[in-house]
TrEMBL record:
It comes from the Bacteria. The active site is at 46. Belongs to the PhzF family. Keywords: Isomerase. This is PhzF family phenazine biosynthesis protein. One of its GO terms (molecular function) is isomerase activity. InterPro entries: Phenazine_PhzF-like. GO terms for cellular component: cytoplasm.
């Protein structure tokens, strides 16, 4: 059995930067174990699978190399890019039904704008292992639905992080987001998800649903420019829309091909 596969670099306009995601269009859902095996074989931070439900309407799921996740920004962007660029979607917006509810993606100039639910965060008392894993004492720590948000005082501290990933796996959360004010953008970040099979994610759309409400309140701004300081790097424009967050970015195709499964 042959299935089409695309690899898209998301949150970038240049190949070999941003966050690569695999996209597998399906006519019907495969068994979960098969989709998980495909994601493990791809060995990217996320593989997206979608099945069409109606005109400009799709069901969408995401898998890391080890687990299925409830929300993924860059692979949603990649799936939309795939549909617009390679499958001839003519409308200006697409609807995706997911484990996080209805998500929409629209065209915006040379890129796309995604409408996601905002994460609700509360200030938290950090576990001792978190500071030990990061090798520093945070300015503050917040907890969202799935991830810790660690706030540092400056961009250079985020860039210099060299966390102990073994200790980071002891933190009881999906992942750890580390963020600080940016020098040339409103805020910067790095994101670590060793418990989900991704040591450091290059550019994390879902993390910006957690960071955007924090920085919007702190900076007194509704629209902000953000940059993720991974080795590949990526840029996202974030806009608060009440209980939703608009995340804007570009994407570029790296690979088109076929996979074979039994």
């Amino acid at each position: 059995m042959k299935l089409p596969i695309y690899q898209i670099d998301a949150f970038t306009s240049k190949r070999f930067s941003g966050n690569p995601a695999a996209v597998c269009p399906l006519e019907a859902w495969l068994p979960d174990a098969v989709m998980q095996a495909i994601a493990a074989e791809n060995n990217l931070s996320e593989t997206a699978f979608y099945v069409q439900q109606g005109p400009q309407e799709y069901q969408l799921r995401w898998f890391t190399p080890t687990v299925e996740v409830d929300l993924c920004g860059h692979a949603t962007l990649a799936a939309a890019h795939c549909l617009f660029r390679h499958f001839g979607e003519k409308g200006n917006s697409l609807s995706f039904h997911s484990k996080s509810g209805l998500l929409s993606v629209g065209r915006e100039g040379e890129g796309y704008i995604m409408d996601f639910p905002v994460d609700n965060i509360e200030e938290a008392l950090p576990p001792k292992v978190l500071s030990a894993a990061l090798g520093l004492q945070p300015d503050s720590v917040w907890m969202g639905r799935d991830d810790y948000l660690v706030i540092l005082d400056k961009e250079e501290a985020v860039a210099a992080l060299a966390p102990d990933l073994r200790k980071l796996r002891e933190v009881r959360s999906r992942g750890v987001i580390v963020s600080a004010p940016g020098n040339e953008v409103d805020f910067v970040s790095r994101c670590f998800y060793p418990n989900a099979g991704v040591d450091e994610d290059p550019v994390t759309g879902s993390a910006h649903t957690t960071m955007t409400p924090y920085w919007a309140e702190r900076l007194g701004k509704q629209e902000m420019q953000a940059r993720q300081l991974s080795a590949r790097g990526g840029a996202i424009r974030c806009t608060m829309l009440g209980d939703r967050v608009a995340l804007s970015g570009q994407a570029v195709t790296y690979l088109e091909g076929w996979i074979e499964i039994d």
